[in-house]
Write a structure and sequence with these properties.
The protein is an all-alpha fold. The protein is built from 6 helices and no strands.
Length: 209
């Protein structure tokens, strides 16, 4: 067990060293998206703020309600797979990198908007909801997004370097997408946590706060 953990840790360190520049770029884009989402909450007009505040209140006040958990899971699965697939496109060609980075920034925007909206409009319950429902699943999901984006950017850049070597390019693409598949599987754990456990936490918070 310890040997397996050491091997995984070593692979992570090596991956970070080899792709540090790409990770810095995608992390910056991700943070820009989060900041844009947080600032957009304050920029909402008065009527929209009131309507959104009522929506958040109704969403959290679910102590007597019920959740269609399977429906929530498949909706979340579809949205995450769609965004992750768009991000993974940059592994095919460097010209697709802007599309992938926009998808990554949009993911950051959603996180920033949801987190700051909950904090602004739901007070203490919203803050707890952010910690349990946004940050905790994000600890699993965010690395998957960044890993796929950084690896895809590197693969897209190498596509230019190897554009005259078709066989090498095909091998590069296969290698990237085999690694991406493992990141997709890891993301499933975060999605399950986000959609299957989060509703129960919200019901608990609504009952004790």
């Amino acid at each position: 067990m310890n040997l397996a953990i050491r091997k995984i840790s070593e692979r992570i360190r090596n991956n970070l060293k080899q792709n540090m520049v790409y990770y810095l770029i995608v992390f910056f884009i991700f943070i820009v998206g989060i900041m844009a989402g947080s600032h957009s909450v304050g920029a909402l007009p008065g009527g929209a703020k009131m309507a959104f505040s009522e929506y958040v209140g109704n969403f959290i006040d679910v102590s007597t309600g019920s959740f269609a958990i399977s429906s929530i899971f498949f909706q979340a699965l579809f949205s995450h797979v769609l965004l992750l697939s768009l991000i993974a496109l940059c592994g095919l060609s460097i010209i697709l990198i802007p599309v992938s980075m926009l998808a990554l920034m949009f993911r950051g925007f959603l996180i920033g908007f949801a987190a700051f909206a909950l904090i602004n409009y739901a007070g203490a319950v919203g803050t707890l909801a952010v910690l349990l429902c946004v940050i905790l699943p994000g600890l699993l999901l965010a690395p998957c997004y960044l890993y796929i984006a950084a690896g895809g950017m590197r693969s897209g850049v190498e596509w230019i370097k190897l554009r005259g070597a078709k066989a090498q390019n095909m091998g590069r693409v296969r290698e990237y997408y085999s690694k991406t598949a493992s990141a997709f599987l890891a993301a499933l754990i975060g999605i399950a946590l986000e959609t299957l456990v989060v509703p129960l936490w919200i019901k608990l918070l609504a009952g004790i706060v």
